[in-house]
């Protein structure tokens, strides 16, 4: 256990305990909420809850369990597709159920672990458990990811993603029919105020822009092509849910579970179809494409026939 005994600085007077303690201690909000739930935060003799307020100059008696660091485990993923491989990059077609890299609480396979198990050497830049990773896909989202193998590739690709120079095209099957059929969603995304693992459109969030176009419309939903201008966590899922057209199967963000069951979906209908960028070694523009995996293809075919 770690412990601290300190005073609340004037700048945090009146802030919620969860956000104020995260700033004060430099811990993640998840770690602070765990500490508060465990009764590890006492202010002037009173145990704090996460919505309680800090008071300037009050004394805090804090104790918490140190954060468990994620650990890279080399685990084979037989259905991880290798789309392209050279000295600078490896492009993979990630199946659903595989995370981009290890993280606290995730016990399943990862792209980084699968590449290690297959003997790939990736860039050493970045945190130990996510070396070579320049962008991510949700564990439940399938499709294309590029991982840097060389240090120059890591630097160049990180800059390209930051500067919005990478083409990121997704297909998503959503509930209902967006109106208009083609449009742009420009709405900031941040952590959900009351659900720890979810995100939402919130005024204090980060700038996020999603462009969409309806490709096909069915009685029970629509197939969209989506281009991301930014790359926020859960961006497509959050924006489509806020637009009242959640991805089919995405029950975390409000999709109808009965529809998901009827279509045989156990995850969101969302696939990273196309990835284009300037190759960090040759400087030439490269574009990679993917096809729908079996579960999404089957659900879409059923949707078309209903």
Descriptive labels:
28% strand, 7 helices, 4-stranded antiparallel β-sheet, Structural Genomics Hypothetical 15.5 Kd Protein In mrcA-pckA Intergenic Region, Chain A, Pseudouridine synthase, alpha+beta, RluA_PseudoU_synthase, 15 strands, isomerase, 9-stranded mixed β-sheet
CATH architecture field of the largest domain: 2-Layer Sandwich
Helix coverage percent of residues? Answer: 10-25%
Number of helices: 7
Total number of beta strands: 15
* Quaternary structure type: single chain
Protein name: Pseudouridine synthase
Catalytic activity: a uridine in RNA = a pseudouridine in RNA
EC number: 5.4.99.-
Active site: 138
Describe this structure in words.
One of its GO terms (biological process) is enzyme-directed rRNA pseudouridine synthesis. This is Pseudouridine synthase. The protein has 306 residues and is an alpha+beta fold. The chain folds into 3 domains: 2-64, Structural Genomics Hypothetical 15.5 Kd Protein In mrcA-pckA Intergenic Region, Chain A; 68-150, 2-Layer Sandwich (Pseudouridine synthase), CATH 3.30.2350.10; 164-306, Pseudouridine synthase (2-Layer Sandwich), CATH 3.30.2350. The chain is 21% helix and 28% strand. It is built from 7 helices and 15 strands. The strands form 3 sheets. Strands 5, 6, 7, 8, 9, 12, 13, 14 and 15 form a 9-stranded mixed sheet that branches. A hairpin with a 2-residue loop joins strand 12 and strand 13.
């Amino acid at each position: 256990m770690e412990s601290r005994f300190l005073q609340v600085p004037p700048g945090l007077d009146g802030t919620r305990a969860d956000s104020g303690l995260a700033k004060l201690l430099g811990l993640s909000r998840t770690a602070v909420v765990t500490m508060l739930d465990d009764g590890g935060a006492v202010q002037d003799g009173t145990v704090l809850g996460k919505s309680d307020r800090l008071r300037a100059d009050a004394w805090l008696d804090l104790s918490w369990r140190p954060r468990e660091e994620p650990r890279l485990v080399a685990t084979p993923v037989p259905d991880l597709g290798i789309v392209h491989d050279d000295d600078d990059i490896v492009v993979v077609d990630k199946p659903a159920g595989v995370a981009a890299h290890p993280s606290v609480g995730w016990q399943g396979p990862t792209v980084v672990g699968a590449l290690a198990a297959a003997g790939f050497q990736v860039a050493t830049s970045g945190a130990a458990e996510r070396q070579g990773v320049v962008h991510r896909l949700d564990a439940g989202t399938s499709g294309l990811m590029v991982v840097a193998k060389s240090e120059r590739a890591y630097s160049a690709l990180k800059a390209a993603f930051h500067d919005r120079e990478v083409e990121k095209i997704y297909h998503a099957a959503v509930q209902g029919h967006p109106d208009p059929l083609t449009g742009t969603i420009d709405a900031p995304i941040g952590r959900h105020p009351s659900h720890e693992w979810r995100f939402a459109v919130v005024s204090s969030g980060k700038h996020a822009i999603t462009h969409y176009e309806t490709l096909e419309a069915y009685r029970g939903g629509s197939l969209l092509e989506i281009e991301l201008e930014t790359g926020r966590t859960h961006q497509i899922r959050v924006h489509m849910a806020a637009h009242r057209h959640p991805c089919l199967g995405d029950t975390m963000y409000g999709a109808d579970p009965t529809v998901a069951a009827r279509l045989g979906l156990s995850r969101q209908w969302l696939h990273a179809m196309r990835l284009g960028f300037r190759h960090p070694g040759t400087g030439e523009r490269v574009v990679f494409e993917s096809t729908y995996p079996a579960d999404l293809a089957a659900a879409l075919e059923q949707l078309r026939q209903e």
